Amino acid sequence: MELTYSYGHFEEVEMKKQQSRNGDVPLIQIIDDDISILILLKDFLEKKGWMVITNSTSNKAVSQYFDLQPDCVVIDVNLPNKNGFEIIEDLQIHSNKHFVPIVMISVFNDRNTRIKAFKMGADDFIQKPIDLEEFAVRIERHLLRKQIYDQSVLLDELTNLYNRRYLKVVYDRSMEEWKRNNQQFSIAILDIDYFKKINDRYGHVTGDLVLSTFALFLAENTRSNDLVFRYGGEEFIILFQNTDYHKAYEIVSRLLADFTTKCFEANGEVFFVTFSAGITGICSKETTMDSAINAADQALYTAKNLGRSRVEC
Ligand code: GH3
Ligand code: MG
Ligand code: MG
Ligand code: MG
After folding, report:
1. Which residues of the chain have pLDDT under 70?
2. Could you say which of 69, 99, 125, 284 is the most buried, measured as most Cβ atoms within 10 Å of its Cβ?
């Protein structure tokens, strides 16, 4: 039987799902057949401001793990039906490559159990009876590592801009905003002109330097809610929140005018870098990210054909 803890479990779970999606409150899942422990840990962790979901059997635990995507999961070794190790296996079979710290807890603390836990993929092992303060501090460390991991997979290594993966998240969120508040948004694709020539003439290291300089320039010269992404090699995307394409065109034209005055130096030579850009306003609530990027890409293609160093809608 699943633990129904003081109020309707389903409602509680739905509410938590909502909250954890909207806010950045960490969600911790605890799986243990000892209900007094569940209540104890839940109460203590909730006082830290974290959200906790509990499962007293393995039945629902695995499906809830995938539905709610907790930031940390605490699993008792000894459970009826499936034990903690089998649950870890289930989580990993369906794994979506995301990193979620696993903390095993147990009354047993023999060497073999501990080794097995870590071999199975546990990140921590805590013996019962649990010291609540220590437990919370350990969980806090795991949440911090999880947070750093989550951010790092959304960032491009060379430029430190957001990567393509995060663009999808932001696009979907912007679409939701539009549906709720009628807030239009625009997308610009910026592609450095003749970048291959820069690589060929000055080498890859200089090429990389141009890319990171350009990235920094874009980040510094856009508003904080206009998000900049590295889309591919020398291609960048800016998502302009609450901005129509006329306004986006103005902004990108100013960026182009400013950037082309910057001079680079390599091999004792001075050179300038230009880019071309294509812009599209998202003008239907049905517009998918792919079709929006396609439209911006078409405009970029026109800009390239018309001689580069220009912006087209
Ligand atoms: P166009 O004006 O038509 O855009 O010409 P282009 O030379 O900029 O475009 P093309 O697509 O022919 O070449 C892009 C080059 O960018 C090829 C690729 O080797 C280089 N590139 C992609 N990623 C990186 C990177 O991370 N570092 C460096 N240095 N070069 C990269
Ligand atoms: Mg148990
Ligand atoms: Mg390109
Ligand atoms: Mg290019």
Report:
1. 1-23, 94-97
2. 125
Would you state the pLDDT for residue 96?
60
pLDDT for the residue 97: 65
- Look at residue 98 in the predicted model and tell me its pLDDT: 80
Ligand 1 site residues, Cβ closer than 6 angstroms: 158, 191-196, 199, 204, 207-208, 211, 233-234, 304, 308
Count how many residues are written for the chain.
313
Distance, CA of 162 to CA of 157 (rounded, Å): 9
Note the pLDDT of residue 93. Answer: 79
Task: Report yes or no: 56 and 32 within 8 Å, Cβ to Cβ.
Answer: yes
Q: How many CB atoms are located within 10 Å of the residue 65 CB?
A: 21
Residues 6 or more apart in contact with residue 213 via CB below 8 angstroms: 262, 264
For strands 235-240 and 226-230, give the pairing.
Answer: antiparallel
Pick from 29, 22, 67, 76: which is nearest to 50 by CA?
29
pTM for the structure as a whole: 0.77
Report whether the peptide linkage leading into residue 129 is cis, meaning its omega lies within 30 degrees of zero.
yes
ipTM higher than the 0.95 cut: yes
In one-letter notation, the amino acid at residue 298 is Q
Any idea which residues carry the catalytic annotation? Answer: 234
